[in-house]
Amino acid sequence: MKKITKKDLLAYEAQLISIAKGAGKILSPYQKDLANLKIDIKEAQGAVSAADHASEEYIIKKLKKLNPEIPVLAEEDFYKKYQGNYKYLKEYQDHDYMWVIDPLDGTNNFVHGLEHYCISLSLTYKLQPVVGVIYIPERKETYCATKGNGSYFIKGKDKKRLKQNKSRSKGFLLATGFATEKGKPFNDEFRKFKKVMTSISAVRRLGSAAIDLCYVAQGIFDGFWEKGLAPWDVAAGKIICLEAGAKITEYNGHDHNIFSKTIIVGRNPLYKKLSEMVSD
């Protein structure tokens, strides 16, 4: 495969925005007819609907036309092949470039009629995102970033660069999610949640990690932490946060990649404070 230049990456960003909007047009009619929407439950991973599959098929078809040499890691395709067993992610770890896609992040919100869902598309290089696009169909809002080119929020003809202001010293608003596995994984995370709540003003759990990350980049949320997310949950949001100036690591402070099992996102002094609370 020929070398991908920064000019190519910027072109991919524009094309991913177009693809995400196309997927949004596929998803919206499904939500307007929920009574007839086919929904299945994936073991330990929540709901999947006909809308997820339709969106993913469209996206993969478009990506294969865009660059057929780049492999695709897509949520529903991975589940179909490996029943969602994350140990098989190792099959993808040696790729240089890779498309990483979530055709519908926030499926549980979607199937209950909530408009808080999105399409998340990313191009990664050696397990780090270099392009990311997140599109929220019901609000027609786009978040996007290319490595070295900044993060942006687009709504209509308005395009604003995202750059976090200096982190608040108090009155923090954070976001998180909980492990889908019950028992010890859930209890461990809930213990961390209670620890954070003792010293943080407020925490939100909105049901879409991708949108949570966009809100950190935008400065709506001050930080985010979660365990057990998949590559397609974090890839696009990670580059959007990084280009907006956020710091991202694993719980233990180690460098984060899209296969990491934990993630902390924030700015100092909050990042340091949050990492101390969730690292044990």
Give a structural overview.
With about 280 residues, the protein is of the alpha+beta class. It folds into two domains: about 160 residues, 2-Layer Sandwich (Fructose-1,6-Bisphosphatase, Chain A, domain 1); about 110 residues, D-Maltodextrin-Binding Protein, domain 2 (3-Layer(aba) Sandwich), CATH 3.40.190.80. The chain has eight helices and 14 strands. The chain has a seven-stranded mixed sheet with strand order 3-4-5-6-7-8-9, sandwiched between helices. Strands 11-10-12-14-13 form a five-stranded mixed sheet, sandwiched between helices. Strands 1-2 form a two-stranded antiparallel ribbon. Strand 8 and strand 9 form a beta hairpin. Helix 1 packs antiparallel against helix 2. The radius of gyration is 18 Å and the shape is globular. About 40% of the residues are buried. The mean pLDDT is about 90. This is Inositol-1-monophosphatase. It is an enzyme of class 3 (hydrolase).
Largest sheet: 7 strands, mixed
The unreliable regions are: none
Helix content: 25-40%
Give the integer mean of the pLDDT values. Answer: 90
Within CATH, the superfamily of the largest domain carries the name: Fructose-1,6-Bisphosphatase, subunit A, domain 1
CATH architecture descriptor text of the largest domain: 2-Layer Sandwich
**And the CATH topology of the largest domain?**
Fructose-1,6-Bisphosphatase, Chain A, domain 1
Beta content: 25-35%
Counting structural domains, the number is 2
The first-level CATH class of the largest domain is given as: Alpha Beta
* Class per helix and strand makeup: alpha+beta
Terminus-to-terminus distance:
43 Å
Shape: globular
Number of strands: 14
DSSP helical segment count: 8
User: Mind telling me the C-alpha Rg?
Assistant: 18 Å
Main sheet strand line-up: 3-4-5-6-7-8-9
How do the helices and strands follow one another from N- to C-terminus? HEEHEHEHEEEEEEHEHEHEEH
